[in-house]
Amino acid sequence: MASNITRKLSTLLDFSFLIPISLLRASPGTIPNALFQSSPSHPTEGILESILLQNGRTLTYRTYGPPNGTPLFYLHGSPSSSLEAAVLVPHLSSRNIRIIAPNRPGFGQSSQHPNRTLTDHTQDVIAIADSLGIQKFRVIGLSGGGPYSLACAHSIPTERLAGVGVIAGSAPWKLNPTKGMDWHGWMRFHLVRYLSWTFNIAYIRRSFDNKLKSWSVEERRDFWRKDLGNTAIDLGEKDKLVAQDKEAIEEIVDCTMEAFENGCEGPMQDSVLLVADWDFQLGDIRFDGVRLYVGTEDRSTPVHGAREMQKAIKGSKLLEFEGDGHYSILGDRGAEILDDFVKEG
């Protein structure tokens, strides 16, 4: 028993770098507009592309699926990256879906965006869409990308949105998102929400970045493998199976490695934004028909949060997948979700 508690506390300390102070009260940033298109109108599948914004930031993204397919923006989890969307590639051609997957500010090679909010990222989505000549599009977010997808439903003009979806998405704090959550996630959410002021963030950020730089690539990969293994102990059966699949593990590690290419500031910023009070209200979402997807055995973003969000978002629909968890839902249910969300194929 004691060793189990020690393991969990050790894991939480490893992740203390994700708890910033100064970002608890974020203020709106400059609305970006693309200065020029630095990638072709039909980028090569899966290759990292970029655009330069008017405020000097760089945004990176990947595209997957038919170049002329139905455009769908995929907003990755946290910490993760645009590589995450690759799991849906087998389902795209037959459904004529083109995925555009941005890296959020501070993730991968996307520039930092200090003091940003959830709704600030909606302008990044619009900037990429404009650069690619896309007028109307769908947006779907997984896990930590879910709140950003809902921010799009709130802030992007409805005439530009063809659909908004959330897969296993984080719920706002006031809806008690930690009800039914695994021990590791519950403690981490509460530490970020209530105890972030006790950390010297500059020191933590610098220390962890220096640690990452001092390790070899394989040492960094092994760190993330161990973290996934520690987390999976408290998850449902399907998620445990994913955490035992060597190919799946390496794909998750790839996503996490890219997330931290530019240091830990972006993931740190995301952690606080997800558990701080959001800068929009679910009841104020103007887009009608938000789709919510969740597995009943998800212990990272439990079904309770999805059910409460469905009640709060006018006109939304919730689809629950029996027995699926946080890691298994995209691999097991990706085709079903796309069929429901895009209504094609």
Automatic annotation (TrEMBL):
Protein name as annotated: AB hydrolase-1 domain-containing protein
Keyword terms, alphabetized: Signal
AB hydrolase-1 domain span: 74-337
UniProt KW Glycosyltransferase keyword: no
Record keyword 4Fe-4S present: no
InterPro entries: AB_hydrolase_1, AB_hydrolase_fold
Organism, scientific name: Arthrobotrys oligospora (strain ATCC 24927 / CBS 115.81 / DSM 1491) (Nematode-trapping fungus)
Signal peptide annotation: 1-26
